[in-house]
Amino acid sequence: MKILIVNPNSTASMTAKIGAVATEVAAPGTTVTAVNPTDSPASIECHTEEALCVPGLLRCIQDGEAQGYDAYVIACFGDPGLEAARELAKGTVIGIAEAAMHAASLVAPSFSVVTTLARTTGMAWHLAERYGMQRFCKNVRAADVPVLDLEDPSKNARTLIRDECLRALQEDRSEAIVLGCAGMTDLCRWLSAELDVPVIDGVSVAVKFAESLATLGLKTSKLGPWAPPPVKPLCGLARIAR
Ligand code: 2AL
């Protein structure tokens, strides 16, 4: 089975980190490839950047279709372009926020999301609402760590995130932590040991959900809103096929 992970930001070091974690959790016989568009923002931490990453992300999905991938993971916590990607893909497409929130709801009565910058907390609340996860989500908290600081060991990001997770457990009284950025994927194991509660990394659970659904032969329904987009002239940025 072949799973394509698309990191929709253009930071190759983050893509490599995501690919390494995904490969570690994948079953024998599953090949995981992580890619990123080269024509998207270096990180995604506002609505504008989320919109700007989508054409490049959709090109990656189109390329994946041409290469016969069985399933896809969108590795950004805003789940940008998720439904558009489902229109283009035959296999399942899983966003890491939806995967992480659903997984958290299976292992704890409630969870807190710990994300990067405060301005992204509203975006995560919207997703919780969209996925019916609001009743499990006690809070969305920001560690005030810009996404690209996660790539720079001198920035002390892991301590800031750990401390925000501890505050979440004490103040929100939630029983699990959802990591609110794909760039936190490599911190999951360390944080789990530090906090002694379930810490959910959306990249890892999305890979396992994608793998499970593909194993069961489940694909994206093409009946209705996730049918392929109508064929019409597309120009400039809107050209998603190469
Ligand atoms: C993200 C993420 O997962 N990748 C990125 O560039 N921005 N999400 C976030 N809340 O900062």
CATH topology of the largest domain: Rossmann fold
Query: Helicity range of the residues?
Result: 40-55%
Radius of gyration: 17 Å
- The sequence of SSEs as H and E is EHEHEHEHEHEHEHEH
Q: Please provide the count of β strands.
A: 8
Q: List each distinct ligand once.
A: 1-(2,5-dioxo-2,5-dihydro-1H-imidazol-4-yl)urea
Figure out the total of helices. Answer: 8
Q: Judging from the principal axes of the Cα atoms, what is the shape?
A: globular
User: Which strands sit side by side, in order, in the main sheet?
Assistant: 2-1-3-4
Structure, explained:
The strands form 2 sheets. The chain has a 4-stranded parallel sheet with strand order 2-1-3-4, with helices on both faces. Strands 6-5-7-8 form a 4-stranded parallel sheet, with helices on both faces. 42% of the residues lie in helices and 14% in strands. The protein has 2 domains: 2-95 and 204-241, Rossmann fold (3-Layer(aba) Sandwich); 98-202, Rossmann fold. The mean pLDDT is 97. The protein contains 8 helices and 8 strands; from the N terminus they run βαβαβαβαβαβαβαβα. Helix 1 crosses helix 8 (202-215) and helix 4 packs across helix 8. It is globular, with a radius of gyration of 17 Å. It is of the alpha/beta class and 242 residues long. The longest helix is centred in the N-terminal third of the chain and has 20 residues, at 47-66. It has helices at 12-25, 47-66, 82-88, 96-107, 121-130, 157-172, 188-195, 202-215, and strands spanning 2-6, 31-35, 71-74, 92-95, 111-115, 137-142, 177-179, 199-200. Strand 1 (2-6), helix 1 and strand 2 form a beta-alpha-beta unit. 1-(2,5-dioxo-2,5-dihydro-1H-imidazol-4-yl)urea binds next to loops.
